[in-house]
């Protein structure tokens, strides 16, 4: 037996999770060298790409001189995705990014079949201050039926509010959708509120228990979209105590389940096309 071979120390075993292979990627004019596992873990597209047989020439992705070129995105979009795949510092809380960056991540995770990352981006986008028109536009582009329905419902609920005109809806979503939303808002939305009248009956003071009589007094409550609740206070003629007699609130006549069912039916074909 060769003495040199016999004296060689045994090879240390490799850790399966923490021995990473780097890959070089190019987006626009920038080159990135990152651990390959970040892409293969979340994307079947990249897992297939990295296992394809290579030709006789230099292997793509092994060096800065021969990177894998990704033409389907911008550097800004790609770096937004990298910030999720490779966090540069420990984070015990959820990742904090702007709405725009989460939209970048939604775009690329959809394109590259990163389902787990896509679900995260949808959740985070929904938690931002995204408006209903933009929500519908994103849902259409990236095929998100739940977000599409949410956007339509928000438009109907906020019908007539400042900042959301019929022109905005028609230009942003198309006039066919605007017509359907107009019809739904007419049936289920809150545009014109009738005056609510409350009748008061005889009763007793809550402080001194002396009978306090208001013989069928009536009062009109001018409830509006901005003023959805009003309280009537009265004063006892005996002890002068002030107490609440009645509180009137404005509620939709049609329940929310009915509105959701009607909206699903009105946009049934579109919802099915992106499911």
TrEMBL record:
Pfam families according to UniProt: BTB
Gene3D superfamilies, A to Z: Potassium Channel Kv1.1, Chain A
Residue stretches making up the BTB domain: 21-94
Coiled coil: none
Protein name stated in the entry: BTB domain-containing protein
InterPro entries listed in its UniProt record: BTB/POZ_dom, SKP1/BTB/POZ_sf
PROSITE patterns documented for this protein: BTB
